[in-house]
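Exam revision sheet. Question 4 asks you to relate a sequence to its structure. Input first:
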Amino acid sequence: MRTVLHNWVFGFRLNSSPGASRLVKGPMSPLKTPSPATPIKRPQVGLMLGAVFLVYLAQMTLNPIIAPLAREVGLAEWQVGVMISVAAICIMISSQFWGRKSLSWGRKPVLIGALTLAMLSMVAFALLARLGMAGILGGVGLFLLLVLVRGVFFGLAMAAVPPTAQAYIADVTETEEARVRGMAGMGAVQGIAMISGSIIGGLLAGFGLMVPLIFVPCVLAVGALLVLVLLRRESPRELLENPPHVRLWDSRVWPFLAAGFGMFTALGLIQVIAGFIIQDRFSLDSRATAVATAAAFLVSGIGLAGAQAVLVPRLGWHPHRLLRAGAAVALLGFAVMIPTAGIWLFLLGMLGVGLGLGLAMPGYVAGPSLLMTREEQGAMAGLIGANNAATFVLAPTIGTALYTLWPPLTLILSAVLMLAVLCFTSLHPRFRVIPAEVNVES
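Answer key, structure tokens:
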């Protein structure tokens, strides 16, 4: 659905005529024409992005309260890291499965199932948190149950949504510019969700830590209902019986995955410990920590959304240039946060990290997608999701462990990783050759 609002926010115009043929010369291989047996009708990109937004809104609303909630129910920092790492493992092992199934089962059943599972898991998470805060349940039993509902169930649900939306956007975009803008739209809604979630989580936490926990499953229920009512289900002719796999070591793919792995590892290291840094560095109580952490994620989300909604469409850069520029800006952001200074410098660093990743992410996602056929898009989207999740398998645990050794150590490692990404994308041949222009012929 080509909504005016979507075009205004993302600057993204679809070119989805199924009969168009494309010719690309050079290192960025052709954008393949969709099979005539699988026509694309009435693109509903806005609705797909809406589903992504609501899932990330639910997740981001919890971020400001994770640190104070953990201490309220008696969890150690490393236990929070393990819980998030388990979720990442579930996303990593199931993302490509969901990406391929979105092409063979259809987007609608995959999204409805994922949103329903996410909603139920967050209801269970809120109940367990309440029992923990009341002292009815605690210790190892509470920790294992939280890992099950927040790690396993929510992780499996989260794994399905981004690959489904990403593969759909790849289906209905035909030029490099449209593909980059479409993937930037994916990142922009995540940034907007980060902004909204930070504001909502911080404000609701002022009424008590349970209030955001009640809000989250309600958001997911709304998402499931919208998909159920509004999303068109594909006809059997539009589905693929056996979509192909895309291998991790595919030469078209692995350089982008390596760059993305470095970026998201750097992000994962800081994301979990941000609340702990703020609480310890500035000596705040639980509620003040939640508000200040919300502000940190808010400015980071502003940078992320601003880069992808405004800068990327206007700049018109190729994926490799977006990757390099974004890595450089994020590197500066991490470096700014290392000194033990005032909270305003910390917030400035978070803004830089969001801005840098906002520039880099569309290049990281669109780059390999431009090299894939339509049949490979689901597997490619799943591989991107798995790669992102892989960074969160160990990053939260490593980040919290390093923080207990010496608080600045985690930030230093994040900066080093971004420097490595900048060097890699500057030196590897895949990122040094400018792609040829994409020509679209009727």
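Marking note for examiners. Residues 1-41, 434-442 have pLDDT under 50 and may be disordered.
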